[in-house]
Every structure is written in structure tokens, then in C-alpha cells.
Amino acid sequence: MVWSTAGGTPVGTLPLILKLSRGYFLIPGLLLYFLGAEVAHAYGASYQLDVLLLGYLPLGFAHLSVSFSNDYFDREADRSGQSQGFSGGSGVLVSHPELAPLARNIAIGLLVASWLSGALVAVWFALPLAYLVLVLCGSLLGWYYSAPPLKLAYRGLSEAANVLAVGLLIPGLGYYMMRRTIELPFLALTVPLACYGLFFILSVHLPDIESDILAGKRNLLTRFGKRAGGFMALGASMAGAATLTLVLYGTALGDNGRAILIGLASMIPIAATTLWVLKEPGSKEQRGRQTKLDLASVMLFLVAVVLVLYAFP
Prior knowledge:
- A hairpin with a 5-residue loop joins strand 1 and strand 2.
- The protein is globular and about 50 Å long.
- By secondary structure, it is mostly helical.
- Helices cover 72% and strands 2% of the residues.
- It starts with a strand and ends with a helix.
- It has one domain: Orthogonal Bundle (Farnesyl Diphosphate Synthase).
């Protein structure tokens, strides 16, 4: 399947669609989902791999939809920026605006797939309405992150949206699939996870401050600048480590030496963002490298937490 650019040059769409999808963004979501499931397992839930994998489908479809919808609704704003992989969009619709309708249709199709698969999972495993509410809230939060009329990223609500998704919705879905309910021990864990959600979005916004200002996006970095953002990110990572330690030692999650190992892993994001504060990244390229370092650190941290919970049941 090919499309023709304005100049008449044929362009294969499959590689462009894959680039639009930015599938690597699924990794932190998948880790958070499995983290929620492992917490449930630590509290005695039986490990059902089929339930876990099928339960991820609605989340995976919705998460993938966000890449396409964000690129579609942010395509004008992305013209003034530069894609950095994890920030600035994929750059595909800037170079190939003729693919914008396709990106929109794929985003909508993935949303529908999320809802349909959620309904099928709910029926297959006899899940209550609360499961569908989680699926619906997560998918709509991703859609309206950049879509009108809400356009959360343009109204100073991008940080709140990410805190809600990372702290509650994504790991909550993993926990719910294993326990069929949301309980107080899990809710206590949402506090440190929310801190890491703030750390994540501050890092993602770092390379795009200038283009976000031109586009009219309101977020903490466009309002207070990258230096203040560095201290906010450092504070979020430290608050995440501190509250996580309290949760671990205050619940059964801290048994079997898990608290010490997870506590050590929580130092990884702190170390990464300390560089942001000590060596303030100036150029867009330097900020892009800092973003990649921050996101690699938080993903390594999530991998460590999931492995510790799995290895020490």
C-alpha cells in the first residue's frame, strides 16, 4: 500500500504507521500493569496468566491509540518542534500531512477495539461493571489529553492526567484483574506511583518547552522553566522513594526483603534527575538526552520492582 506525497513521490505507509505508533511507549504502561498484578499476587491472588494477558488487551489498544491521536491533534504544534523519540511527537504528520486522516481513523479504531475487547473480557471472566469503568476512563483520558473540547495538555492538566493514569488507572487495572476489586493496600501504593507519574511527564515535557509555549500548551515547565522543572522532577522522584518506603514497611509488601531491594531500585530515578539539577541541560539535544536518561531510569526502576515482587512472593 502506498500514498503519494504532494510532490508525487510514492511513500510506503507501513513504516510511517509504525513510526506513528511509537510502540515503545507501551513498555512503561505494560510494566505498570504487571506491577499492579504483582502487588495483587503478593496479597494472595492466584496467578492466572490468561486472565492477565487478556485483561491487558483493552489497555494496550487504548494506550496505542494515544500515540495516533496525540500526533493528529498536535500536528500543528509539532511543526515548531523536533521529534525526540519520547517527546515532540513522531514527526510523521509534519513531514506527511496527507496521512493525518489515516492517523485519526486508526486512533478511533483502536479506541473502539479497546471498548469491544473490554466488553468481551468482562463477559468472558464475568467481571463487574467497575472493570468497564476503569477501561472507559483510561481510554477517554488518553483521547482527551490532546483532543477537543477538553484538550487537557493545553489547559494545564497534563500533569494531573499522567498522575491519574500512572498512579491509579494503569496499575489499578492489573490489580483488579487479579483481585476483582480495588483495596486499601493498593490505594496506598498509588501515592508513590503518582509521584513517579509526575516525574515521567516533567521529563517528557523537557525538550519541548519552546514549542509548547508557541502552541499555547500550559504545563509546569512552560510556566516555571526547565531549572524549576528539574527541582520538581527531583522532588517527585525523592517523594516517590520516601512514600514507597513507608508503604512497603507499613504493609505486607515489605516482607521477604522486598523493601530493601525496592528501596535500592528507587535510587535510580533520583540519580538520573540529579544530573538535571546539577548540570542543567541547555540545548534541545541536551534536554532530549536528559529525557531519555530519566525515562530509562524510571523503566529500569519499574522492571526491578516487578521482578522483586515476582521473585519474592
